[in-house]
Amino acid sequence: MRQDHGTHSWPWWKEQILSKWVNDSWRFKMENSFEEAIFNIERDRPMSWFLKQKDRLTTLHPDMSETMVHKRILRKFGGDLEHSIRSSFIEPRSTEDYISAMEDITTRKKVVEIGINHQWTTRPVGNQFQNLIRQMTNLL
């Protein structure tokens, strides 16, 4: 194809690729991938997950503003995580700010869950209390 058309700019090549490969079944597949993607704090890494969703949306809807892309992605979190990320900003921010906030919040949430799921869920009795104190001081 390059021999036939010579050296063209990237926008021209991009248009050729999209016209050749992008069809209704591909769009349907991409929309389903976006709709089915729900962030899992234990499985997904914030930056790669967020950027993958952003790429899917901008490919499907190239005219969508960055603010709308961010809002649609934030709806995928749901519940407390979405609220925490939204309330960490006063005004709309860049993608980097959202990813940074997402990483901070998920890291703090993991630390809290590890602490809760470890030994602090049961009340220590007798010598168990002293052993627990020793273990906690060793961690510090």
Structure keywords:
elongated; 140 residues; 70% helix
In short:
The protein has 140 residues and is an all-alpha fold. It has eight helices and no strands. It has one domain.
Protein architecture, described:
The structure is a single chain. This protein has one domain. It starts with a helix and ends with a helix. It is built from 8 helices and no strands. It has 140 residues and is mainly α. About 5% of the residues have low confidence. Helix content is 70%, strand content 0%.
Fold blueprint:
Blueprint: H1 2-5, H2 10-21, H3 24-36, H4 46-60, H5 66-74, H6 79-87, H7 95-117, H8 127-139
Helix pairs in contact: 3-4, 4-7
Distance between the termini: 63 Å
Kindly name the structural category: mainly alpha
- Rough outline: elongated
Return the domain count.
1
Alpha plus pi helix count: 8
Rg over CA atoms, rounded to whole Å, is: 23 Å
State the order of secondary-structure elements, H for helix, E for strand: HHHHHHHH
Major sheet characteristics:
none
Range of strand content: under 5%
Percentage of residues assigned to helices: over 70%
Give the low-pLDDT segments: 116-122
- Number-wise, the strands total 0
Would you tell me the overall average pLDDT?
Answer: 78
